Each structure stands twice: as structure tokens, then as C-alpha cells.
Amino acid sequence: MSDNALQTNGTAALAHGAANGAAEGVRGVTVAPRVDLFEKDDELLLLADMPGVRPDDVDVRFENGELTVHGRRAPAVGGRERSRWEYEVTNYYRTFRVTEAIAADRIAAELKNGVLTLHLPKVEAVKPRRIAVRG
Amino acid sequence: MTRSRHAFGDLWHEVNRVQDEFNRLFGRFAPAARAAATAGPLVNVWEDENALHAEIDLPDVDPAQLEVTVTEGNQLTVAGERKAPELAGATWVRQERPAGPFARVVALPALVDADKVGAKYENGVLRLTLPKSEAAKPRKITVVGA
Predict the structure, then answer these.
(1) Closest chain B C-alpha to A38 CA, distance in angstroms
(2) Which residues of A100-121 are buried (b: 16+ CB within 10 A; e: fewer)?
(3) Which pLDDT value is given to residue A100?
(4) What phi and psi, each to the nearest 5 degrees, are found at residue A125?
(5) How are beta strands B75-82 and B100-107 bridged, if at all?
(6) How many CB pairs under 8 A join A and B?
């Protein structure tokens, strides 16, 4: 995959996709949070923008190498008398497949100022060993 | 910190791509399609009898550095800067989150009292309360019989 991965591609309909227009307004809008990803020697680091989400409303799962991030956002206050409405988010949802071996039991998460920080520690590689050769 | 063009797919494969931009442009939420073309953070504004309320998503911004001004009674400006993360010994794999200075100017639907604007930053969201100026409030006119 290249930088083109950053471009929009077509799979828009996830959980709350375009199906069932009748329920519109009740089901809310799901968007993928923007993320920054880093690699360090001992861990992978993910930062995700999830403004409006409280720490209690984030769900992070790591299963079979798949990382899922889900944040629920409290509904906007202005149900009526909206004079300008440029965005709407009820859920942040995104899934990644992580090919690096991760120590799942040591994954740490924190949410501060609307940004989720995830530390994904790498499984410690087997240390190189010197093999003695007997003559 | 080193920046690399290191392919995303080496370590991470995205399973579901739900692009927020895609949703904004093609999703059911039509008004956002217009907004996506504007520069700066997106703004929601609603009103009640006495005040306008604005909500702006500004994750990871130092609230002390935010500049909120109202000029001419109804021009709201929100400006600030978002710093890119600085992580020692880390290599960028992917960068989607915007960084750098931003500014947004919005024309409010009513005149407000610039001296009484309230601002609160919580969970990465800036919430403003902008009391309407006396002249902009609805008033009941008493009709006097002849």
C-alpha cells in the first residue's frame, strides 16, 4: 500500500450506513476518526481525533490482530433552532489489522482533550544468541 | 523525530475504510457538503430566545492559546494553532490529523453582546455562549386600544 491509502475510497457504509432512510435522524452519523500512526522500537502508537467523546464512552478492542476503536459522542444540544449546522457525529469507528505482534495484555489507552492515545507494545523479539561452535 | 514515507501497509491494514471526508461529501448529511469546502474548523450554531450557542471541534488544542473574538456584533472569529505531535524516537507511519495555525470566521444570525461571551473547552470541543444583544431579542409589543 502506498500513500494513496490516504485517499478516499468507496466503502462508506459501515454500521450506520446509508440503508434505511426512514430511521434517519435517530441512528446518527458514524465517521472514521483521523489518526496519526507512529512506530517506535518497542511499540506502535496511534493518536485518534475524537472530539466530544468522554473517556467512559470509548471502546478499544484488540482481537486476532484486529484493532477496533469506537467512541460514542453525546448528541448535540441544539436539537431545535439550528441556524448553522456543519457537522454531525454520533459515533467514531475504525478498524485496523495490525501485522506486528502486539502484547495485547499491555495495550494502554488514554483520552485527553478529544484525542485518544493508544500504546501497542510489541512482543519482545527473541534476543540474538551467539551459538558456540565446537571444534 | 524522523519522518518516513514508509508504507502504511507494512504494519497496519485498514479493515474498514469509512472516510470522514467521504461521509461529509456523500453521506446523508447534506449541509456538511458545503462546509467541507470552507477552510478552518467546522462550526455548529443554534439559538434560543436569549443567546446563540456555537460548538467547534478543536481536539488537542491548548485552550489558553485560542483566540475568540466578536466584531461588528455578529462576526465570530476563532483562531489558534494545533501543534503536531513531537515524539522522541518515533517514526511517522501515517499522518491524517491536521496541524498548524487555523482560523475560522462565521457570520452569526443575530447581533450578540461581545462583552458577555462565554467560552468553555471540554473533551476537545469549544462551546460558546453568545448572549443576544438587547436589540436582537424578540419583544412583545403591547397594543393599546383606542
Answers:
(1) 5
(2) eebebeebebebebbbbbbebb
(3) 81
(4) -70, 150
(5) antiparallel
(6) 208
Contact A52 B16 (CB under 8 A): no
Tens digits of residue pLDDT in A38-80: 999 889 999 999 999 999 999 999 998 899 999 999 876 655 6
Q: What is the ipTM of this complex?
A: 0.71
Q: Do A51 and B15 lie within an 8 Å CB cutoff?
A: no
What's the whole-number mean pLDDT along residues B110-138? 91
Cell for B90? 518515533
Do A35 and B97 make contact, defined as CB atoms within 8 angstroms? yes
Q: Alpha-carbon distance A91 to A81, whole Å?
A: 23
CA distance B99 to chain A (A): 11
By C-alpha distance, which of B17, B13, B95 is closest to A64?
B13
Cβ separation of B10 and A99 shorter than 8 Å?
yes
Looking at residue A65, its amino acid is: G
